[in-house]
Design goal:
The complex is a heterodimer of chains A (419) and B (273).
Chain A: H1 9-19, H2 25-31, E1 36-42, H3 48-58, E2 61-67, H4 69-78, E3 85-89, H5 90-96, E4 102-103, E5 105-106, E6 133-134, E7 158-159, E8 162-169, E9 171-173, H6 175-178, E10 197-200, H7 203-216, H8 230-245, E11 249-253, H9 256-264, E12 270-272, H10 275-283, E13 289-291, E14 297-307, H11 312-325, H12 329-335, E15 340-341, H13 344-347, H14 353-359, E16 369-370, E17 376-378, H15 389-393, E18 396-399, H16 406-418
Parallel strand pairs in A: 1-2, 1-3, 6-18, 10-11, 10-12, 14-18
Antiparallel strand pairs in A: 3-14, 4-14, 5-7, 8-14, 8-15, 9-12, 9-13, 16-17
Chain B: H1 2-23, E1 27-28, E2 33-34, H2 40-47, H3 49-83, H4 87-98, H5 105-110, H6 112-116, H7 121-128, H8 143-167, H9 171-179, H10 184-213, H11 216-221, H12 229-238, H13 242-266, H14 269-272
Antiparallel strand pairs in B: 1-2
Classes of the chains: A alpha/beta (419), B mainly alpha (273).
Chain lengths: 419, 273
C-alpha cells in the first residue's frame, strides 16, 4: 500500500478550502487537528482502519460507533446531537430525512461527484438499464436545496447522502452440506432444508427476501416489492408463517455474527446472508457460497449524511473527509472485502491488478486473494460468485425499502416472530 | 431518616414509571412521537391475539422455570443447611454455588449454544454413546433451550433466600419433632417447609420477575423463533414505537404486580422475617 502516502493531502485540502465560502482557510489548516467528528453507522463500513487512516491523511480524529440497522435508524431519528456524520443506508435515509436531523450536501464541493456510479445519480447503471423495485438510492438521494425536506427526482446539486458502499445480496449456502446446485430463491422454503434454513429478523430487509422467495415460488408477482399493499404483506408473511410452523427455520438472525455462527456451525445450510459474512465463514475454513440466483439480487446502498447541527470548521472537515472517502483508499479497502465503492475508478488505484480483476471484473484470480486483514479468501484460478460488477449490480431485482404500509408490515412481522 | 430514600425512590423509580405511563398514551409515527391522550396503543394491544399468545408464553416460561428452580434450589439449600454439618464447609460449598456468577449472564447463556448445537458437544457425545443416531434438533433454538438457560441462570436466586431462612430454623424444633416420633418426610413437610416459606416466596418473586421481564435469553436461546413480552417491547423500541412499547410495558408491569400480590397473599413476608 505504498501508493497511499503519496497523495498530497495538504494540497488537496487547501484547494478545497479555497473553494468554500466559509472563511479563514489559514486558521482552518491549523485548527483541523483539534477537530473530532463522531460517526456512527452499521458495522459494515465503521472500521477502525478507516479512522486510523483519516488521522494519518487528514489529521483530524474520527470516532466510530457501530450499531445494528434498527439502532442506527433510532439514533439518527432521535438523537441528532449525538453524531456529526451518519453512515446509513438509503432506506434508513427515507425514514430519517423528514425528521430534519440531517443536512443536504452541496455536490459542487464533492470533487469526484461526476465519477459517482450512475445508480446513485439517475438510477441507471448503464444508460439502457432498468431501475429495480424498492427504495432505489437515487429516489432518496437528492433534495431541492440546502433546507429541502422533499426528495426530488433529478440531480439537483444537493445530495442527502454521499454514497459510499453498496452491494448485491443473495442467499448464502453450504455447498458441502447441500450437494446440488441451487439457483432459485424458492429453495429457502424447500422442505428438503426443513430445520436448516434461516432468514434475517430485520423486518425491512427480511420482507424483501421473503418477497423474492414468494415470487420465485410462483405464488404471486408483485407490482412493486418495495411498496406492498396490506394484502400483499398478509400474503407474503402468511406463506412464511406457515413454513415457520412446519419447522422450516432453525433460527432467525439479527446480527452479522449470528449469521456467521449459524452457517459455520452447520445449524443452517441456506439463509439470507451478507457478503462479508460469507467471507468470515470461508476464513474459518468452512465452504460457503454467495449463490447467484436466477431471479436476481436484493441490493442495498449506504452513504454518509451530515448532522443538521454540523457547521463551520467541523463541516469543512466533514466535506474534506467525504472527498477523501471517495478518493479511493477506502473504496479499495471495501472492495477487497467484497463490497463496491461509489467511485470504482479511484479505488482501482489502491488495488492490485489481480484484486481489481477478481473483485470488480469477475476475472479468474491470478494469485491468492486476501482480505484487508490478511486472510486468504480465494486461490489462483477461482472467480467471484456472480461474476463482474456489471453482471452483479446489473441483475438487481429490488432495493432494500421502506414501504408506505411500514407500520402495518412491522406489526405483521412481530406476529410472524411470535407465531 | 427516610427522606433520602424517599427522594431516591421518587426520582429513580416513581418518576420513570410515571413517564412510561404517560408516554403509553401518546401516538407515534415513523419519525416522531406526538404527545396526546389516546387509547389506541392499548386498543391495539388488547385487540391483537399475538398479545395474548405472547403473554401466555411469558407465563409458561415463568411457571416452568419456577418449578425447576424451586425443586433444584430447595434441594441444594436443604443439603447445605441440614446435611453439611460444619459451618466452614457450608460457607465453602455456598461460595462454590456462586462461582458461575462471576461471569456475565449473557456469557453463561451463550455458552450453551455451541454445547447444544446440532454438531455440539451434547449431540456428538450422545451419538458416540449410541444413545441416538441422529442429532437432536430440539436441544437448541427451542423452548427446551430457553428454559434450560433460565433454570441455569436463576436457580441461585432460589438457593440464597431458601438457604438463608433454613439456617435460621431453630434446630431444637427438628429435634423436638423427631422426639415426638415424626418421620423424615413428616419433618420436612410439617416443620421445614412451613418455616422456609418466606425464603421460598422471596426466591419465587425473584425468579418470576426476572423471567417475566427477560427478553435476551428468549431471543438467543430460541434463535429468535419464540417471543415473550420483553421481546415485544424490545422490537417496538427498535422500531421507534416508544408509545406502543410503553403501553406493553405498563401492562406487563401490572401483570407482574398482580402476580406478586397474589403470591404475598400466601405468605406475609414482613411478619415472617
Amino acid at each position: 500500500m505504498t501508493k497511499v502516502s503519496r497523495r498530497n493531502v495538504l494540497k488537496g485540502g487547501a484547494a478545497f478550502a479555497a473553494g468554500t465560502t466559509l472563511g479563514a482557510p489559514m486558521i482552518w489548516a491549523q485548527n483541523i487537528k483539534d477537530v473530532t467528528l463522531r460517526q456512527f453507522g452499521t458495522g459494515v463500513s465503521n472500521l477502525n482502519d478507516v479512522a486510523n487512516k483519516v488521522k494519518e491523511d487528514l489529521g483530524f480524529t474520527l470516532e466510530m460507533t457501530a450499531l445494528d440497522s434498527d439502532s442506527v435508524t433510532q439514533r439518527a431519528a432521535t438523537q441528532p446531537n449525538s453524531f456529526d456524520i451518519a453512515d446509513i443506508e438509503y432506506w434508513i435515509c427515507k425514514k430519517v430525512w423528514p425528521t430534519g436531523n440531517l443536512q443536504a450536501m452541496d455536490t459542487s464541493k464533492i470533487k469526484n461527484y461526476d465519477k459517482i456510479v450512475g445508480i446513485f445519480r439517475d438510477g441507471k447503471l448503464t444508460p439502457t438499464s432498468t431501475i429495480a423495485q424498492g427504495t432505489a438510492p437515487h429516489t432518496v438521494g437528492f433534495v431541492e436545496g440546502p433546507g429541502g425536506k422533499e426528495f426530488v427526482d433529478n440531480e439537483s446539486g444537493w445530495m442527502t447522502l454521499i454514497p459510499t458502499i453498496y452491494n448485491a445480496d443473495t442467499l448464502g449456502i453450504r455447498p458441502d452440506l447441500i450437494g446440488r446446485p441451487i439457483s432459485n430463491w424458492s429453495e429457502l422454503l424447500n422442505p428438503e432444508f426443513k430445520g436448516k434454513a434461516s432468514i434475517l429478523d430485520i423486518s425491512s430487509i427480511g420482507i424483501m427476501d421473503m418477497a423474492m422467495v414468494v415470487e420465485s415460488m410462483g405464488e404471486y408477482k408483485y407490482p412493486d416489492k418495495g411498496n406492498m399493499t396490506k394484502e400483499e404483506i398478509d400474503l407474503t408473511i402468511g406463506i412464511f408463517t406457515e413454513a415457520k410452523k412446519n419447522g422450516q427455520f432453525r433460527a432467525f438472525w439479527k446480527s452479522f455474527d449470528e449469521s456467521v455462527n449459524l452457517m459455520a456451525s452447520g445449524e443452517v445450510v441456506i439463509q439470507s446472508m451478507w457478503s462479508p459474512a460469507i467471507t468470515a465463514v470461508k476464513s474459518k475454513g468452512v465452504p460457503c457460497v454467495y449463490q447467484p440466483l436466477e431471479e436476481g439480487y436484493r441490493s442495498w446502498g449506504g452513504g454518509i449524511g451530515l448532522s443538521a447541527a454540523l457547521t463551520g470548521l467541523e463541516r469543512d472537515a466533514a466535506y474534506e473527509y467525504i472527498n477523501w472517502y471517495l478518493d479511493g483508499w477506502v473504496g479499495g479497502y471495501l472492495m477487497r472485502q467484497g463490497y463496491y465503492s461509489a467511485v470504482p475508478e479511484t479505488s482501482k488505484n489502491f488495488m492490485s491488478e489481480n484484486e481489481w480483476g477478481y473483485w470488480f471484473e469477475g476475472k479468474e484470480a491470478t494469485d491468492t486473494i486476501t482480505s484487508p486483514t490478511g486472510d486468504a479468501l480465494a486461490q489462483a484460478g477461482e472467480t467471484r460468485d456472480g461474476g463482474s460488477f456489471e453482471e452483479r449490480m446489473g441483475a438487481v431485482a429490488c432495493w432494500n425499502a421502506v414501504m408506505d404500509e411500514n407500520q402495518y408490515m412491522v406489526r405483521k412481522w412481530n406476529e410472524f416472530i411470535a407465531a | 431518616m427516610a427522606l433520602p430514600i424517599m427522594a431516591v425512590l421518587v426520582f429513580f423509580l416513581v418518576l420513570p414509571i410515571l413517564m412510561i405511563v404517560t408516554v403509553s398514551f401518546w401516538q407515534a409515527t415513523e419519525f416522531s412521537i406526538i404527545p396526546a391522550f389516546d387509547l389506541e396503543n392499548y386498543e391495539f394491544l388488547f385487540g391483537s391475539n399475538v398479545t395474548y399468545r405472547v403473554f401466555f408464553n411469558t407465563f409458561k416460561y415463568a411457571f416452568i422455570t419456577w418449578v425447576f428452580t424451586l425443586s433444584i434450589g430447595f434441594t441444594v439449600a436443604y443439603f447445605l443447611a441440614f446435611h453439611v454439618r460444619s459451618l466452614t464447609w457450608q460457607i465453602v460449598l455456598f461460595l462454590l454455588c456462586t462461582i458461575p456468577f462471576w461471569t456475565s449472564n449473557i456469557i453463561r447463556m451463550i455458552s450453551w449454544i455451541p454445547f447444544l448445537g446440532r454438531n455440539g458437544i451434547a449431540n456428538s457425545t450422545l451419538i458416540s454413546w449410541g444413545v441416538i443416531d441422529e442429532p437432536l434438533d430440539w436441544l437448541l433454538f427451542s423452548d427446551f433451550a430457553v428454559i434450560l438457560a433460565f433454570v441455569h441462570l436463576y436457580t441461585l436466586f432460589m438457593v440464597v433466600p431458601i438457604f438463608n431462612t433454613m439456617m435460621r430454623i431453630d434446630k431444637s424444633l427438628i429435634e423436638a419433632a423427631r422426639d415426638a416420633g415424626a418421620s423424615g418426610t413428616q419433618i420436612l413437610w410439617n416443620v421445614i417447609i412451613p418455616l422456609t416459606k418466606p425464603g421460598i416466596m422471596i426466591g419465587t418473586i425473584f425468579v418470576v420477575t426476572l423471567v417475566m421481564g427477560d427478553f435476551i435469553t428468549v431471543r438467543f436461546m430460541s434463535g429468535s423463533q419464540s417471543a415473550n413480552v420483553g421481546r415485544l417491547i424490545s422490537n417496538d423500541i427498535a422500531l421507534l414505537a416508544y408509545p406502543s412499547a410503553s403501553a406493553t410495558a405498563v401492562v406487563l408491569l401490572l401483570t407482574v404486580l398482580i402476580v406478586i400480590g397474589i403470591l404475598l397473599r400466601f405468605v406475609d413476608i414482613r411478619k415472617e422475617l
